[in-house]
Amino acid sequence: MEATIPQLAWFGDSELKLKFPEEWNVSVQVMEGHGKKSVDKEEIIYALKNPIGTKPLGRLARSKKDVAIIFDDMTRPTKAYEVLPHVINELRKAGIKDDNIRFVCANGSHGVFDREDFVKKLGERVVESYPVFNHNPYANFVYSGRTKYGTPVEVNAEVMACDLKIALGCIVPHPYFGYGGGAKIVLPGIASMRSICYNHGDLGGLSTAQNHRKVHPSCDLAYGRVNEENILRLDSEEAAKIVGLDMIVNVLVDLRRNSTDIFAGDVIKAQREGVEVAKEHYRTPVLSEADVVISNAYSKASEAAIASWPVLTLKEGGDFVLIVNAPTGQVTHYVHGRWGTEVFGDLYLAPPNTLNRAGRIILFSEYPERQPWLELVPPEKTVKVKTWEEVMEELKNKHKHKAKVVVYPDATIQKPF
Q1: What is the C-alpha separation between 52 and 29, in angstroms, rounded?
Q2: What is the mean pLDDT of the chain?
Q3: 294 to each of 35, 160, 172, how far by Cα in Å?
Q4: What pairs with residue 198 in β-bridges?
Q5: How far apart, in whole angstroms, are the C-alpha atoms of residue 3 and residue 9?
Q6: pLDDT digits (tens, 9 = 90+) for 237-259
């Protein structure tokens, strides 16, 4: 028996073959939208000319001078380079000069990225032709007031200096917001650390303090389950309206990061319409009581803790295999990460308690880290290996000639709800 799963997003996007004993019962659970046709040039242009809840991009750009194009960072699977030529073309037709267009990476609290990253995300021509900036969550903001929830709206000064603001990203399930996309690219994407910590911590309750107080009900197990009722999203949407985001362009992706659907328009209305499709698109049938669950972190391999939810389908005390082939390692996270053996970000998050269900966690990575920035698995019950052959050796020693195995090809975007 052999299963093929994707690996190495942004590093060649190759496939990994998993071989199992023929007598084992192996099931590969794919999401409903996999196999859907990718969007083509005509569909992208149509979305920009016929947006949801706002004027076409060409009309929005009339009489405007300076344009900021905000894009999601390398922790997200969006192939922005497929959409950008059409966005730029619409701007040019409206009279916007190339010298008046700049790009800002919505890296939020994820550290910074470099030229190689920007070329992968935006394409060589964009990086050669336009200024591309990282967002700095510690400096250079414009304060625009507070949301009704109390969050200070402090966002990137370069973006606020522009009179046309466009954002490009994707809608995928998110552990705390329910779904990404829409206003999340503003808060936390281009917001200050003060704004991010208030949104994530004071409102959402996401930190080690959740051991003493509950996470906000709309954020607890939010992954693909909630959206418009989510307090973090509602707060972010108000912030996006305050700063005047003119258009969002969001895509859905498949299990190979191909864009299958596109939703452009008002930051709230376009995201809502996209989520209605996303609810079925990412939905994945689950099989419970498995002896072995294999969870692959692909689209968000550098935030591999997101791929931990399939452990809930594991038989109590079974083996949970987490595949994390991330050449860059786990993303630097100023808010939720660790900065030393006893030094943490303001809203440090420990390994998910759900992982305690597993009797053993086999962490398979060709790029191991002694101490990742984001916590993945409790070390006391973890076996670390570098090859699939080592994984199988561990599994066969325990399960011998009989095992019920369930494989999730990309648990960072698949959802069980």
Answers
A1: 33
A2: 94
A3: 21, 44, 21
A4: none
A5: 18
A6: 999 999 999 999 999 999 999 99
How far apart are alpha carbons 165 and 151 in whole angstroms? 21
Question: Which residues lie below 8 Å from residue 299, measured CB to CB, with a gap of 6+?
Answer: 9, 76, 77, 172, 253, 257, 410, 412, 413
Sequence letter at residue 45: I
Neighbours of 301 (CB within 10 A): 31
Instruction: Give the position of tokens 């082939």.
Output: 325
Which tokens go with 253? Answer: 């992706």
For residue 30, how many other CB atoms are within 10 A of its CB? 16
Whether the pLDDT of residue 285 is over 70: the answer is yes
Residues 6+ apart with CB under 8 A from 222: 174, 175, 176, 177, 178, 230
> Cα angle vertex 222, ends 221, 225, to 5°?
110
C-alpha neighbours within 13 Å on the C-beta side of residue 90: 24
Residues 287-310: pLDDT tens digits?
999 999 999 999 999 999 999 999
CA distance 310 to 292: 10
Strand 141-146 relative to strand 132-134: parallel, antiparallel, unpaired?
Answer: unpaired
Residue 38 CB neighbour total at 10 angstroms? 15
| DSSP track, 79-125 | -GGGTHHHHHHHHHHTT--GGGEEEEEE-TTS----HHHHHHHH-HH
